Amino acid sequence: MGAQLWLFAAQLGTVILVLAVAYRPLGDYMAFAYASPRHLRVERGFYRLIGVDPSSEQSWPAYVRAVLAFSTAGIVLLYALQRVQELLPWSLGLGPVNEALAFNTAVSFVTNTNWQSYSPEATLGFTVQFAGLAVQNFLSAAVGIAVAVALVRAFAARHSSTIGNFWVDVTRGTLRILLPLAAIAAVLLVAGGVVQNLDGFHTVTTLSGATQEIPGGPVASQEAIKIVGTNGGGYFNANSAHPFENPLPWTSMLQIILMLVIPFALPRTFGRLVNDNRQGYAIAAVMATFFVVSSTVMTLLELGGSGSAPRLAGAALEGKELRFGIVGSTLYGTSSTLTSTGAVNSMHDSYTALGGGMAMINMMLGEVAPGGVGSGLYGMLVIAVIAVFIAGLMVGRTPEYLGKKIRAREMTLASLYILTTPALVLAGTALSFAIPGVQADVTGTSIANPGLHGFSEVLYAFTSAANNNGSAFAGLTANTPWLNTALGVAMMLGRFLPIVFVLALAGSLAQQDPVPVTAGTLPTHRVQFGGLLIGTVVLVSALTYFPALALGPLAEGLLHS
Amino acid sequence: MSARRGSARQAWVALRALLLMTVALGIVFPLAITAIAQLAFPAQANGSLVRSDGRVVGSALIEQSFTTAKGVALPQWFQSRPSAAGAGYDGRASGGSNAGPESHSLLTAIAARRAAIEKSDGVTADRIPADALTASASGLDPDISPAYALLQVPRVAAARGLSESAVRALVESRIQGRELGYLGEPVVNVLELNIALAALK
Fold first, then answer.
1. Domain range holding A431?
2. Between the CA of residue A378 and those of A147, A424, A436, A455, A501, what are the distances in Å?
3. What ipTM describes this predicted complex?
4. pLDDT tens across B48-73, in order?
5. B54: contact with A, CB 8 A cutoff
6. Residue A14 lies inside a defined structural domain of this protein
7. Which candidate in B5, B33, B81, B89 is best for mutational testing of the A interface (most A CBs within 10 A)?
8. pLDDT tens-place string over residues B136-165
């Protein structure tokens, strides 16, 4: 175990080093991309074709309407593509996807969740994958960053009735940030062995004379944005454990870095846009603290290998790829569950009880450390608002953050934000076991591992859906009318309610004139505030989820330790 | 402008934006990447196919079975890890067992695999590494540990009438260390090992 811990330290160190090097240039570039007054020629042509004046600014309700209109159009188109799949070219002979599954999948990809109730190899042809799913991989990510930038602008604004132009933000995020990164990533992944072709399955006679079907497809182009956009929906059922999605240890390390790089650089963008880089460092340091602690704990638990099956086999290798090893699996699993990516290079359902519980806890933190692209930053800023409020209560001052007063309206919106996801997770899980007909279906059809672990599978599913993560305890058969619908609703409300609250908060912050900094102002760039923010994140999630965790992974882990 | 008219206008803008983005990101982007991939890295882009005696026998990245149709291990080939992809090693159904740490079916499977290896290779249970007893995440894991490969040397050599030292030397020459010394685990690619084995006379 000692040697494995050194490997872990070296791999974690590599990730931190690369992210630290990328922090300033990428963060500054993104700040420039969103703040620049100049439009590229291709962007001007795009605005003309869609009929938008890029120089006009939107109030927060108009920004909300644009987000919702764009996302609704995305859901409708993706649903329609799946329903008429047999008419599309390159459908590989696959028929239409049924209504409940098509709804679930459309919502899943538009909300940046990428929960998959289906097995892609057996369900989707090339056209739905690249013209439907991959497009939403880009656009849902761009929407997330746009909303975060709108909130940041509101902190920097003085007495403004507008928070930016959604169409400009989403276009720039796509064309200036996501597309170039995805193109570079795709070529690197192909060099490592990720396939990129337009062939279907290729039947070969194996060395020992059996037959095997080797899959093909435009995988690398989709894999790249799946990771860069913290989406996570696999081209194949095995996701990033599939050798054609993630062939080598270095491609796995590349994917870890790519899913973290934008979320960890966005605090710099925030610092730049509010003209105080120290604020960005504070947020990034809080995110990094969670990342280091969480990845270490999960790695120790998996290396420890408690539980009956890992002990019998000699190590917790069920559901893990040998080329990544345990350390390469847990570092990926932590990165993916802390960023709302939800890609997996190992099967979390087969983790030790407490190791799998860590994956759940990562998501339950609210996807803020560092969280999904954009959504992680706006989530953390909302919790920062709550943290300054708590600090204000302690000293009896009107709380303020970055010169903006946190009054009743701001606090109401922040509270609604943090209550939404836990309510969806806990209600969804509870209803799955409380409604008589549903309970029989969930325990009889959906759950793969009966007992405590089965409860964990359902809790994981709703945690993943409502937090827009998308990973799973994949033994759960989620392709049932109840789970497709309930998880679809959880994903939709878990994405768009918080976005509405964040944009409303942005609207009310933008209107304020900043108050001057005085000796009594709480400094929000020091270690003291970082500690307070960490405490607030833990408090908000721990108190909410502890009882549910106790019924699932904690009970299972303690009984069989 | 009323909110309702604003929404209708936004919907029309949204639809046009979505269709244009679909053309750019959903059609031009993947086709451009396909063209680059096919020109720059044709072998990788087409699945890292490998040949034996001039015939394509599979992909170096995709695990295949070396068993009879009924799943009994063929002694003359190095065996891959157990697979939960479909009925096993199914390229159309990648995935793991998703069995939890207390799963009875998993415990039974591990015990059965262990008994089979004890019998086929004449080794005691404590020498069998975990990768030989557990199914991977994809069910298509192309590698086994050096320990599992070396464990199989006497059986393979006997079945082929080769000397153990020759087969052991072949295995040792095929052990791939960690990338850069610290990424991943030391592995042996089973298909490539078996292709080299078939060429050994």
1. 375-560
2. 8, 19, 38, 31, 11
3. 0.96
4. 999 999 999 999 999 999 999 888 99
5. no
6. no
7. B33
8. 999 999 999 999 999 999 999 999 999 999
